[in-house]
C-alpha cells in the first residue's frame, strides 16, 4: 500500500510494501534532516543535496528529488540511486546531476561516511572565498582544527573526472571546503552529520561577524585548538551526543511548525 502525504512530514505517510522497515526508518530520518535544514534557513531553494547511504555492499544511497523544496521531501519520494547517479526505482522525479559527482564519490570511497550534506549558506560561501578560509580562534572554529580538507573550485560539480581530486582533497577528514563555492560534511549517521554541519555553520557565522569588527583576534594556541577538536570528535564518535541534539531540534521544529513535520 502506498499513501500520498497530506503533510510534508512522515507522520501522515504509510510505508510502501516494497520498502523494508530498516530502509523506511532511514528515509524518515533523512526527511527530518531535509526539513531541519530548511527550518534552520540553510537551503538554497531547490538546489543542494543531502544523501544517506543504504545498508549493503552496493553503496546505493537516498537523495532528494530534483525540483522539490526541502519542505516537500518525504520518506516516500526520496530517490534511491546507484553510484552512477541513476534511479534504481521508478519516480516521476530525477536526481540533481550536480550532486552525483560529490555524493557518489564519497559514498563509494569512504565506508565511515554514511551521510553527506552539501550547503552554501551566505556565511559559509563568504568564508570559503577567502584564502584563509576557516579560522580556529572562536569556540566553534577551534572544533574544526585539523578536520577540514580544501578543494579548489573547478566550476559547477557535474563531471565524474573531478571525483578523484575531491577525494584527494578530503583525505581522511569529514569536512570538505569547496573553495569559492560551499561546504560538504559527512559522518557515520544522519544525526552526526547534521551536528557537524551545525558546528561548521556556527563557526562561519561567528567568523564573518568577527572579521567585520575592528581589532585583532585573540589567537588560540595549537594545543587548545587540538584539544577542542579532539573532544568534539570524541563526543560525536563515542556518545549519543549528536542523536540527542538531532532529536531535540526535530522536537523544536515540530513544536513551531506542527506535528505533521
TrEMBL record:
Entry-linked SUPFAM superfamilies: AraD/HMP-PK domain-like (SSF53639)
A Pfam match: Aldolase_II
Residue span, Class II aldolase/adducin N-terminal domain: 28-208
Assigned GO CC terms: cytoskeleton
MF term (GO), any: actin filament binding
Superkingdom assignment: Bacteria
Gene3D superfamilies: Class II aldolase/adducin N-terminal domain
NCBIfam families the record matches: PRK07044.1
Similarity comment: family membership: Belongs to the aldolase class II family.
Protein name: Class II aldolase/adducin family protein
Organism: Azospirillum lipoferum
Amino acid at each position: 500500500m502506498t499513501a500520498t502525504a497530506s503533510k510534508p512530514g512522515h507522520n501522515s505517510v504509510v510505508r510502501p510494501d516494497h520498502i523494508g522497515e530498516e530502509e523506511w526508518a532511514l528515509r524518515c530520518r533523512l526527511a527530518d534532516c531535509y526539513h531541519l535544514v530548511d527550518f534552520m534557513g540553510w537551503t538554497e531553494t531547490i538546489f543542494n543535496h543531502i544523501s544517506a547511504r543504504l545498508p549493503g555492499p552496493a553503496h546505493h544511497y537516498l537523495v532528494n528529488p530534483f525540483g522539490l523544496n526541502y519542505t516537500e521531501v518525504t520518506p516516500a519520494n526520496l530517490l534511491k540511486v546507484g553510484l552512477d547517479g541513476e534511479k534504481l526505482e521508478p519516480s516521476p522525479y530525477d536526481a540533481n546531476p550536480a550532486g552525483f559527482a560529490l555524493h557518489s564519490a564519497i559514498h563509494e570511497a569512504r565506508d565511515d561516511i554514511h551521510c553527506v550534506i552539501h550547503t552554501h549558506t551566505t556565511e559559509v560561501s563568504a568564508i570559503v572565498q577567502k584564502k584563509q578560509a576557516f579560522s580556529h580562534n572562536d569556540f566553534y572554529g577551534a572544533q574544526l582544527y585539523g578536520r577540514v580538507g580544501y578543494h579548489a573550485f573547478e566550476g559547477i560539480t557535474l563531471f565524474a573526472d573531478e571525483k578523484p581530486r575531491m577525494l584527494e582533497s578530503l583525505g581522511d577528514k569529514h569536512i570538505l571546503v569547496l573553495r569559492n563555492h560551499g561546504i560538504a560534511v559527512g559522518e557515520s549517521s544522519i544525526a552526526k552529520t547534521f551536528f557537524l554541519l551545525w558546528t561548521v555553520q556556527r563557526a562561519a557565522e561567528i567568523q564573518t561577524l568577527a572579521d567585520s569588527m575592528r581589532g585583532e583576534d585573540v589567537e588560540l594556541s595549537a594545543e587548545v585548538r587540538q584539544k577542542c577538536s579532539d573532544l568534539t570528535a570524541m563526543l560525536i564518535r563515542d556518545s549519543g551526543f549528536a542523536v540527542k541534539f538531532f532529536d531535540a531540534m526535530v522536537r523544536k521544529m515540530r513544536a513551531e511548525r506542527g506535528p505533521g513535520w
